[in-house]
Amino acid sequence: AAWMAGIPCVCHVRHFEWLNGFDRRLAATAARLIYISEAVQKSHLESGVACTKGRVVYNGLDVVAFSEQQDVAGTRAGLGLSPSDLAAGMVGRLESWKGHDVFLRAIAQVKDELPNAKGLIIGAPVLHEPSYQEKLLALQDELGLSGCVRFVEFRSDIPAVMAALDVLVLASTAPEPFGRVLIEAMAAGKPVVATDAGAAREIIEDDVQGLLVPPGESQVLAHALTRILANPALAEAMGRAGRATVQARFTAQQYAQGVQAVYRELLAEL
């Protein structure tokens, strides 16, 4: 419609897409494509979209909301954690490619070395996988994790949740277009462990803000979690580095400025 009206069209691309011939023809009519990561842009380039159309503008968030003082003790108590527990958590929708099963298998190994380690899976099931949570609960029982893993429904108080964790886990078995939970945890000053697929490497540097692990490798994930949870000084240093990274690269203001820059560039060509 924009092409027919002679009006420039800017499209925001937030997911991996493999384009067919019709899609490529539509993409050709867009004046600019804004990608949330280089990984997403690469997927379009590999599908045949012209490289001159794309600009990467990373997601941003309100850093202040994650810097405010939180009732950590109260939130942890509400999540079923004691003051001495070491909490590793996944935050996001319950969808099979997010790798919750890998996380559960990793926690089963972590607790052998750190008995006070606890796992939290926070999020609601998706409609297209109604039985996925039941499968995870069955795996929880199979691994003997009923006492150290808790499932928590959707929460809207993400700054408080992140502040209550000791480490945030992104265990996705398929590439993440971005991985917003990473910058949320980092903004809260928490170390992160993420699978090295998709945009994670664009957000965190291995062994600086957190650790990168291969997708689907529960044993490697367990080793990474144990290393962080057993070393408070390392966790604190990673948390500080993560917060500094978010303040430098992933603020809402920087996101807005990035989008505005694309529009100014386009309007200057008219």
Rg, rounded, reads 20 Å
Distance between the termini: 18 Å
| Unreliable stretches | none
Strand content: 5-15%
The residue-averaged pLDDT reads 96
Number of helical elements = 13
DSSP strand tally: 9
| Main beta sheet | 6 strands, parallel
Series of H and E elements: HEHEHEHHEHEHEHEHEHEHHH
User: Helix/strand/pairing class, anyone?
Assistant: alpha/beta
Neighbour order of strands in the largest sheet: 6-5-4-7-8-9
* Global shape: globular
Provide the helix percentage: 40-55%
Structural summary, described in words:
This protein starts with a helix and ends with a helix. The longest helix has 18 residues, at 232-249. It has helices spanning 2-5, 21-29, 38-46, 63-67, 72-78, 100-113, 132-142, 158-164, 180-187, 200-203, 218-229, 232-249, 252-268; strands at 10-13, 32-35, 54-56, 86-91, 117-122, 149-152, 167-170, 192-195, 210-213. It has 13 helices and 9 strands. The strands form 2 sheets. Strands 6-5-4-7-8-9 form a 6-stranded parallel beta sheet, sandwiched between helices. A 3-stranded parallel beta sheet has the order 1-2-3. By secondary structure, it is of the alpha/beta class. Helix 5 (72-78) packs across helix 8, helix 6 packs across helix 11 (218-229) and helix 9 packs across helix 12 (232-249).
Structural features:
270 residues; 3-stranded parallel β-sheet; alpha/beta
